């Protein structure tokens, strides 16, 4: 928040910081008191309830206050992994085949076998598969037990995810290969930033080449040590073109705005699959989004200012549209 404040003040903006707690009254009072021309939205949800991530965006939309970042609809959609994948699949974009489970009594898991005739996707599901909490983000719930190779493991992992996080649980084809990420910004035109990658170093038996929760957040863990993040991935021109094109299409399809990130798996044969979209990537100046801005000759501070100017322009256009009515 401080870096955003500094960047805006340096450009002559009058800036006030407003916090968000469990009771939204403080935020509402601050909005009514200061009547901001625009809000730089850095809210990522309450610490113990990530589902609230879209709440501030929805509140600002209700009040008619322009803000930076994605609209509430896109933020809600991203938290529903199964729905996101249905939209991607329905639009013909490549995403790993999958099915969704809401209860341990799901008939597809009975009698020691799994019925995959209801799986959605362009290819049949095969072992191994990966099991994810369907309404979580930031790799929450992902560890090396997430990848399963038998019905017994699959049933046990589904039960664990239901117990810890509740439904839905997403069962997805595990894609062997690389994990690439592409940040997309609108500043002011929509474009991709340089392609990044989580690099999977060789590991001991029993581990899988996946981005676990620890690989992202626990700096002292072996997963973090063996899954370094590379700001500039080494990819062929053909792969770069394919990944960037899909990132732009997914960004628009999922209703993202200003900035967002699309995550991919790419097989050794070069087949590209979209895993998910993140409409609220970490905006910290030390995070991945900021690290790749230099690739297009932009600083973090310049992006901050540009996003605010775009929010103000949206307010201006909305005012013109109302006047024409």
Provide a brief overview of the structure.
With 325 residues, the chain is α+β, with helices and mostly antiparallel strands. Helices cover 36% and strands 15% of the residues.
Query: For the record, what is the CATH homologous superfamily label of one domain?
Result: ATP-grasp fold, B domain
Structural class: alpha+beta
Give the terminus-to-terminus CA distance: 38 Å
Q: What is the count of helical runs?
A: 11
**Average pLDDT:** 92
- CATH domain fold name of one domain: D-amino Acid Aminotransferase, Chain A, domain 1
Strand % is 5-15%
The global form is: globular
What is the number of beta strands? 10
Order of helices and strands: HHHHHEEEHEEEEHHEHEEHH
Name of the CATH first level of one domain: Alpha Beta
What share of the residues lie within helices?
25-40%
Poorly predicted runs of 5 or more residues: 320-325
Q: What is the C-alpha radius of gyration, as a whole number of Å?
A: 21 Å
Instruction: Specify the CATH architecture of one domain.
Output: 2-Layer Sandwich
Largest sheet, if any? 6 strands, antiparallel
Explain the layout of strands and helices.
Blueprint: H1 2-10, H2 25-34, H3 55-63, H4 72-78, H5 81-90, E1 98-101, E2 129-133, E3 147-148, H6 151-165, E4 169-173, E5 178-186, E6 190-192, E7 196-198, H7 213-217, H8 222-226, E8 229-230, H9 237-253, E9 259-266, E10 272-278, H10 288-293, H11 300-324
Helix pairs in contact: 1-11
């Amino acid at each position: 928040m401080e870096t955003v404040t500094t960047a805006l003040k340096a450009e002559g903006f009058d800036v006030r910081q407003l916090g968000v707690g469990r009771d939204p009254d403080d935020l509402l009072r601050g909005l009514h008191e200061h009547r901001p021309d625009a809000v730089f939205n850095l809210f990522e949800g309450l610490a113990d309830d990530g589902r609230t991530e879209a709440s501030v965006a929805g509140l600002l939309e209700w009040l008619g206050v322009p803000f930076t970042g994605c609209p509430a609809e896109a933020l809600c959609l991203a938290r529903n992994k199964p729905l996101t994948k249905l939209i991607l699949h329905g639009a013909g974009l490549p995403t790993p085949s999958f099915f969704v489970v809401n209860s341990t009594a799901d008939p597809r898991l009975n009698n020691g076998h799994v019925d995959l005739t209801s799986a959605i996707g362009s290819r049949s599901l095969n072992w191994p598969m990966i099991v994810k909490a369907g309404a979580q983000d930031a790799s929450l719930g992902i560890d090396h037990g997430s990848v399963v190779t038998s019905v017994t493991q699959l049933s046990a992992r589904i039960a664990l995810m239901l117990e810890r996080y509740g439904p839905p649980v997403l069962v997805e084809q595990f894609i062997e290969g690389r994990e690439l990420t592409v940040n997309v910004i609108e500043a002011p035109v929509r474009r991709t930033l340089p392609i990044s990658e989580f690099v999977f170093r060789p590991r001991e038996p029993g581990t899988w080449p996946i981005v676990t929760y620890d690989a992202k957040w626990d700096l002292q863990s072996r997963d973090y040590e063996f899954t370094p993040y590379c700001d500039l991935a080494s990819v062929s021109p053909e792969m770069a073109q394919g990944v960037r094109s899909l990132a732009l299409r997914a960004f628009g399809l999922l209703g993202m705005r200003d900035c967002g990130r699309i995550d991919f798996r790419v097989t050794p044969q070069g087949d590209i699959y979209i895993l998910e979209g993140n409409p609220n990537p970490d905006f910290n100046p030390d995070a991945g989004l900021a690290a790749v801005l230099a690739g297009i000759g932009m600083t973090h501070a310049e992006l901050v200012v540009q996003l605010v100017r775009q929010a103000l322009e949206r307010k201006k256009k909305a005012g013109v549209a109302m006047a024409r009515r």
